[in-house]
Amino acid sequence: MKEIILLGASGSIGQQTIDVVKQHADQFKIVALSVGKRISVLKEILKEIKVDEVCVQNQKDALKLAKEYPNIHFSYGDNGLLHLVSLPKGDIVVNALLGFSGLMPTLKAIEHKKNIALANKETLVAGGQFVKEALKKYQVTLYPIDSEHSAIFQCLQGNSRSSVKRLIITASGGSFRDKTREELKDVTVKEALSHPNWSMGKKITIDSATMMNKGLEVLEAHWLFDLPFSKIDTIMHKESVIHSMVEFEDTAIMAQLGTPDMRLPIQYALTYPERLPLNGEYLDWSKFRELHFEPLSMERFPMLRLAYEVGEKGGNLPAIMNGANEAAVQLFLDEKIKFLEIEELVEKAVHNLEYQAHPTLEEVIDADQKARIYVNQLVEGESN
Length: 384
Ligand code: MG
Fold this sequence. Notes:
Number of helices: 15
Strand content: 5-15%
Largest sheet: 7 strands, parallel
Bound molecules: magnesium ion
């Protein structure tokens, strides 16, 4: 029986993790979990899953819940997350937290010799170097849950990393893939949130529309697969049937295909190297007579270009880009800025905040904070 600590249980990935666990209740058991502020969702989860450790975001919620569920220990906030991943139980931590907040729990879980199933790409984008060092030091394995990276991970099985010519990360193109930049000027939050292929959380859906998501995935791939940026390519593939590919030096290309269902990457991260049945939909080839591919234009999608630039320079820039993006996306969701301002703000943060080539972990955390403050101040300054 594999014991799972699930961080971010109320989100899209968290809920699908619970579904996977329910399908294989003889093999997996969730022993601790966290949610943010969605207490009603937590209560639904607790009807089905028996755990004795739960972390929520706010102390107030934790105190209230402790009275309602006397058999469960409730912790809260950042320290609560660190407490969960430090418990003696738990073989693997599924990290489905939102954004940069996932970094410290990942590092702490690794210290406690727990394997990681990572859906939280911002962890690797901002703190990839520290995560890698910790994985090595504590002899722990990290499995990708991002669909593209899971696809690459699957394609690499049985092949040596040194024979890889390049990774080809596919992109659906997001909600606005058929719009020109001119047409993006007045798009609404609602339009941005309607992704053509995938049903996901709000932050990642906006990131898909700006193509920042693909940029973050390029950095994520760099750390996961230990490859230089010159060997990481992207391609637009609107059908989302091919989840990504690996090209080898003998010209062979391996691809992983299937319906867009995040439960497969989640399950594979939990069952690796085994494959178990999944009650998902099989690909219906009668619906896909043609698959389409086109290069992603760096002019049309400047966030992708920026991500490569930031990845190459490294240091604290990925943390600045990521922190600025998280802040800007929130401002867009709150309808305080327009869609194209997300890009402007992220560019400004990357090019105006102080660059450090070799930051410590504390300096990376500081860069994230400064980027958020910078973006919010720029927007407040404009509105005053
Ligand atoms: Mg992805």
